[in-house]
Amino acid sequence: MSKNKILGWLVLVGVFVGLSLLWVRGDNGAYGLKSSSLDEETWKPFFETIDFLREKFIGGTSFDETMMMEEAIRGVLRALDDPYARYLDKEDFAIETDDRIEGEFSGLGIVIAIKDDKLTVISPIKGAPAEKAGVKAGDVIVAIDGESTAGIALDRAVKKMRGAKGTKVVLTLQREGVSEEFEVEIIRDIVSIQSVEYEIREGDIGIIRISEFHGKTFDELRNALFALQDAGVAGLVIDLRDNPGGLLPSAILCSGIFVPQGRELLWIEDRNGAREVVKNFMSPLWDRPLVVLVNKGTASGAEIMAGILRMILRTELIGEKTFGKGVVQEIFPLSHGGGVIFTVSRYLLADGTNVDRVGLQPDTEVAGEEEQLATALKKIKELLGSNAMAS
Predict the structure, then answer these.
(1) Are strands 290-294 and 235-239 parallel, antiparallel or unpaired?
(2) What pLDDT does 387 receive?
(3) For residues 212 and 214, what is the distance between their CA atoms, to the nearest angstrom?
(4) Which domains, ranges and CATH numbers included, belong to the chain?
(5) Residues 176, 320 contacting (CB under 8 angstroms)
(6) What's the maximum distance between 2 C-alpha atoms anywhere in the chain?
(7) Nearest 5°: CA angle at 218, between 214 and 222?
(8) Which parts of the chain sit beneath pLDDT 70?
């Protein structure tokens, strides 16, 4: 890290902590805490540093404390063992909160995280520009428009890839099994997430694809189930491939549509190890044969749903090992209109299964999208045949 970056980080952390802890400077020039539960001596050097910089630093023509404050927050978040933590400025905060409710934004249509210190694609959104350009789950983004992503803050990466419809961005990617890095040119567009889509195959087999869990997903899933039942569907494939998760309550509600009322679904564990037990309060809407498709882009809420269905209904998972995200983030608004996102809890399936950094291993491992779907359809036919013989 350059000397200027270190200097900026120190100043920023100082400003950030100063604002949040309400430090004041006394008549003797010394800083002290006005009110805080943190130790005064631990944080005092930051404010001493700010004082020195304000009085003596000549490395620039201006001392932009707003910019430094934002960089300090990024530095604090980068110091955490949390690949999903990121800072949101005013614009990003508005976009992020809107995304989680409405499921629409302008950009490339990929969900990213820092994995093993690398900017990694959790999953591309189906039908979005990135997927059409060939971006796949698990791709490492080495550079954005020629600028290296080494050490990049997650919010900066998101901001660099979002942009106005019709504008271009070039990603340099590294992919498992491909020897050399390669570039993908993508034209940004409006990404409107229809979180649930469905169709009927081979007369009586329904396929429901859930691309993400947001505020409208539960209603969309319920309506899809009613439509398929009215059409006489006897077996169902739930496709959770390249579903990065989304809103935890939405994923839990969608899981509850399929399992008996009163069953334990999930344990949510806080920072102190205290666990909240989540039980299903709904009556199931589906009691016919069911299989689930997963891949390495199946993450977070999608892993919750897949795991719950297998745990309670013995539903077979078909495809690839899932991503392995078993933690929950929360957005916290800040006084300037921005916010921060970081991990606040972890979840375990109610049988104790931990998916974080582990993932779910499918019951039937199959590579290739068409092969995975063909295997799922074959399995449903077998289940329907077994049901017919049993009756």
Answers:
(1) parallel
(2) 66
(3) 6
(4) 3-78 (no CATH), 104-192 (2.30.42.10), 196-390 (3.90.226.10)
(5) no
(6) 89
(7) 150
(8) 1-38, 60-63, 98-104, 387-391
